[in-house]
Structure formats: C-alpha cells, structure tokens
Amino acid sequence: MESDPLAQLRDIHLPADISWWPLAPGWWVLIVVLVFLFGWIISKMVKRYQANLYRRQALVKLEQIENSSANSNPLADIFAVLKQAANIAYPNRHFSSLGIDKFIDFLHSSCPSSLFGDLPDNLDTLLYADDPQQNKALTLNLLASAKIWIIEHRREAPQ
Length: 159
Hints:
There is one protein chain. By secondary structure, the protein is mainly α. The chain has helices at residues 25-51, 53-67, 74-89, 100-109, 123-126, 136-152.
C-alpha cells in the first residue's frame, strides 16, 4: 500500500528574524558623522551666543535708561551705551573716540536700517544740556534707533 505523499510534508520553517545588533559598518560611519556634526553645530551656537553677550547687555542698559526717571542726562547715557557696544563690535577701529557727527555717520554705515533720522543740528550741545527732560521726544527717538542698531548692526569679523 502506498502512502499518501502529501501526508509526509512538513510545515515550512522560516529563518530567524534578522537582528538589528550588531550594526553594519555603514551605520557606524553615519553615527560618527552625525555626532561630529551635532558637536560642531552646538559649538558654533555657543560661540555665537557668547559673541552676542555685549548686545544683550547693551539692550538691558537701554531698558534701564528708558525706565529710569532719575537719569541725569539720558542722551549722554544712550550714546555711552552705543560707544561701548561699538568698542566691542569693532575693537581695533576706535569709533567711540570720534566726534558725535562722525560717530552717527559710522552708526549709519554699519547698520542696514536707516536710523537716527531727524536729529537736531545742535545735538552735541543737547548732550550736555542742563535740562535733559525737555528733549523727551528726542530721547525716545534715540532709544528706538539705538535698540535697532544694537540688534541689527554688522559686527566686524574676528581676525
């Protein structure tokens, strides 16, 4: 008697699942490249954050000038903050030692936005006036322009 050949068949045995570990060499190369890339990006971000510390400090000083009512002369204080920021942004140029008109020209040329418009011709005498409160509109205009300059000016490339 012949036996049924189909009865002798067994189920198909599938191979074991492919393990994800250990990784192929290509994945190791990709991981190493990504680690170096993320490290480089983080170091650039930290350097940029540290390089812009003077901007954040200048904006805080301008906010203090704006909120303080006891300022002896807010116009002079605003230009003092701008000159400090210019000294840090352009360390080898000494723009802060320029006269007020040349310093304002420098501020115009170092920022893409048009700033410090409608300044009076006698600004150098107003900086040291006895009554700084009479120039409230001028002070607010200078504060707004100074904030924009601090945020948007082009910094000199480090050498």
